[in-house]
Amino acid sequence: MARILLPLAASLLFLTAVLAAPASGVSSSVGTPSADAAAPSETVPLASDNPNGILFLPDSNIVPQAVRGSLGANILGPQNIPIELQNADLLAPPTTDAGNVQNAKWPFALSHNRLQTGGWARQQNIDVMPIASSMAGVNMRLEAGAVRELHWHKTDEWAYMLSGSAQITAVNADGQNFIGNVRQGDLWYFPAGIPHSIQALNDTGDGTEFLLVFDNGAFSEDSTFLLTDWLAHVPKEVIAKNFQTSISAFDHIPAQQLYIFPTPPPDNQAVPTSPQGTIPNPFTFPLSQMKATPLSGGSVKIVDSTIFTAATAISATEITVEPGAMRELHWHPTQDEWTFYISGQGRVTLFASSGNARTFDYEAGDVGFVPASFGHFVENTGNTTLHFLEIFNSGRVQDISLSQWLALTPPDLVKAHLQISDETLSKFNKTKPIVVGPS
User: Fold this and answer.
1) 296-303: average pLDDT
2) In 3-state terms, what secondary structure has residue 54?
């Protein structure tokens, strides 16, 4: 037995000595490895350098194909070329797209339009874009003098003036009233349940067009509470008793809702004076007069309840991005983002975690949606300024900048994740870039 154990013990001692000996090129003293220490071995493959730029634009003079590099093949069947040109990253997606993300694009041009004497209205809600569960939008047009009749909603209403001018009216539960005028680029806001009206002015002769956003994805513009609709369904005896007058005084009330109807533009008649006073926090905000903050690749205006105090449940940013620039990589911690594109062309990739990502292309008149915490960017892919609105279901605008987050995290920790150099890390910004210029 001893003859067996002695050689085994000698072998173990030799192995222990070899393992304890310092490796070549590495200091035997306690501390950090020297500069020539080998980098940690890769635990996963490196990200691909395959080009993933947009392949064509809506105005490209080509027949688009489902091909990116060596992937895909040409289309042999029938094509809807205009639709495919507008959605390059759906037809031939970047190789970084993966998994499943719900559709996050809806053009108002595909919405059914409700035509009325004096204007029209079309909407987007979860019926056409299910991912947008928390917000819905309406695009409305009123000819000069036309009225969106006196009404109210179960949801808050936020509005952006796209063109022309309008006069709005409202009365709150305390009997205080408000009348205000808004012009292109301005905002208004009505809390849920507040009765109000919208009438187009005649400053330019064209009336007005505007965007409405509601903080409920199931909202329907066809299901609002309308003055004429209500009274058409109340016995006239009750109406007369309520207003302490004769039944004949209401012989000419409409038998059904008006919704949008033509009238002469409002004149300079005196505003009714309420014994309770006027609404203390105005329901309008002159965003058109607010100076934009210039950025390296564009500009931004931020409007939330800190400056538009009436708007307690919806806030927004108005952003421009110059050609070649981009809205930085970021996410919104708890707020969903409902996006409206006013002009230009852009692309957005939504990162939904767990390896899921999808890219969408947008242009003027399109609606986008980004669920809370989804990482994303907005890249200008066109040759003109990209102009869009980010609208949030919160009284405050909040986002997390990827660049700022990593710049304010211990550098060794960031380098361990991304295997980048100190020089690269030094380019990360400790203040939010918001928009970054072309590289």
Assistant:
1) 97
2) coil
Residue 388: CA atoms inside 13 Å, Cβ hemisphere, count? Answer: 31
- The catalytic residues are 390
Distance between CA 439 and CA 427 in Å, rounded? 12
Rounded Cα–Cα distance for residues 131 and 368 (Å) = 10
> What is the DSSP track for 237-306?
HHHHHHHTS-GGGGTTS-SS--SEE--PPP-SPPPPPPTT-B-SS-SEE-GGGSPPEEETTEEEEEESTT
Strand partners, 351: 357, 375
Q: CA 218 to CA 155: how far, in whole Å? A: 10
First-to-last CA distance in the chain?
A: 75
Question: Over pLDDT 70: what percentage of the chain?
Answer: 90
pLDDT at 30: 34
* pLDDT at residue number 267: 83
pLDDT at 434: 98
The whole model's pTM is what? 0.89
In sequence order, what are the residues at sequence separation of 6 or more whose Cβ sits closer than 8 angstroms to the Cβ of residue 255?
Answer: 232
Dist CA 432 CA 15 (whole Å) = 55
DSSP structural state of residue 384: S
**Are β-strands 345-351 and 376-380 bridged in parallel, bridged antiparallel, or unpaired?**
antiparallel
pLDDT tens digit string along 159-173?
A: 999 999 999 999 999
